[in-house]
Amino acid sequence: MPSLLPLVTVLTLVGAATCEQLLASHFSGQVYTLNLTSAGSKYNLSVSSVITACGGLPSWLTYDAVGKAVYCSDETMSGTGSISSFSAGTNDVLTVIGKANAPIGGVANTLFGGSNGRGYVAIAHYQASKVSTFKLPITSSSVPQQVFTFTMNGHGPNYARQDAPHPHHVVLGPNGSFIYSPDLGADQIRVWSINHTTGNLTSCPSYMVPGGTGPRHATFVVVQNGARIVMYVANELANTISVTALKFPSNGACPTFQPLETLSPFPNNATAPIATWTIDQTSGMLDFVDLHDSWGTYPRTFSINKAGTLLAVGDQTTANVAVLAINTTTGEVGATPVANLRLGTAGHPENEDGLSSVVWAE
Ligand SMILES: *[C@@H]1O[C@H](CO)[C@@H](O)[C@H](O)[C@H]1NC(C)=O
Ligand SMILES: *[C@@H]1O[C@H](CO)[C@@H](O)[C@H](O)[C@H]1NC(C)=O
Ligand SMILES: *[C@@H]1O[C@H](CO)[C@@H](O)[C@H](O)[C@H]1NC(C)=O
Ligand SMILES: *[C@@H]1O[C@H](CO)[C@@H](O)[C@H](O)[C@H]1NC(C)=O
Ligand SMILES: *[C@@H]1O[C@H](CO)[C@@H](O)[C@H](O)[C@H]1NC(C)=O
Ligand SMILES: *[C@@H]1O[C@H](CO)[C@@H](O)[C@H](O)[C@H]1NC(C)=O
Ligand SMILES: *[C@@H]1O[C@H](CO)[C@@H](O)[C@H](O)[C@H]1NC(C)=O
Prior knowledge:
This protein is an all-beta fold and 362 residues long. Helices cover 0% and strands 50% of the residues. The chain starts with 6 loop residues before the first strand and ends with a strand.
């Protein structure tokens, strides 16, 4: 769905080695592998390979570093959607392993469950108001293992965007035992516990957020030397970031939620596409650092490499990937991109076209 999404980058202090392969998807039906080469401080981002795959509207890529596989959701909005998996073969050319029919409107996916955490995939379906799961591997005869369909009475406060439940993300919690799905239409974070053996999800009570918040993406950080799990949610409709502590009963039962703070990503009325924050390692609360350009319009997606040295931002409408350096000591993001590459055709503001997803393949 269209949005100008404030990006929260989580600042980490880690080593220096960088991996230099990225994957990107384009709503016109392409999935790319990109090479980021560097010589000293000079970087060059180039297309290594491109395939037409992942149905009519590729929207989201998950990279499985262990299985050297890629899972792509298709946001096709009517008829039948799909889920595809690719292997990253020699010279990083992607080949399709499997493609199965799925509900429409796939906008995000995550691997979960099984003995290795890679036994199943869960998918958020925005237009279908559903979350589905599939057992892996995906084949042409795969059918969903479970489909959760959500309904609500009437509209939410944002009449245009909250006509129905719209799950926009599925994300695995820090220890892999629960899946969370911000529902932009229904103003809640949906939660499931995972049965690792069967891959079945069991619904937990949702975390309800104020009407009109429109939660879109969630991520988690563990602070207090492991004692506190904190959830950060980017709220698309309210244009805020909320910080919430999670509590887990010792019997493995569903988490409860304690709101800590809700912030504007734009202090002092400034606006910019990327906001950075430091995380207090005791409370998990955020301190504003800086705002940055995204070097294109409609930043939809971003990914930080494992070393914490590079931030790749995917701008939807201008269909470009901008790579920005991160100072691992200060967390500061570089003023100008080290590389910037247009992929395929540019999109149109408010349309579901242009670049959809970028991730580091490492
Ligand atoms: C960047 O890489 C591409 C593809 O390998 C190559 O054609 C181009 O000349 C390189 N650009 C620079 C500035 O090295
Ligand atoms: C991209 O990098 C991979 C791995 O280093 C290499 O095999 C491939 O040839 C590169 N692609 C291009 C177009 O240079
Ligand atoms: C997982 O499902 C299996 C089969 O239904 C059941 O025997 C087992 O107790 C479940 N595990 C948990 C942790 O609920
Ligand atoms: C998993 O859930 C489905 C329905 O959601 C159910 O039909 C199936 O029996 C469950 N499988 C196990 C092993 O519990
Ligand atoms: C994950 O957290 C839940 C809730 O605290 C706990 O029951 C479970 O044992 C944990 N799992 C792992 C693998 O640590
Ligand atoms: C932000 O903008 C509003 C509306 O224009 C104004 O009332 C407010 O004083 C501004 N705040 C700051 C900190 O500049
Ligand atoms: C990171 O920032 C520190 C403090 O400003 C500076 O001393 C250091 O040179 C920077 N590192 C890089 C790689 O730019």
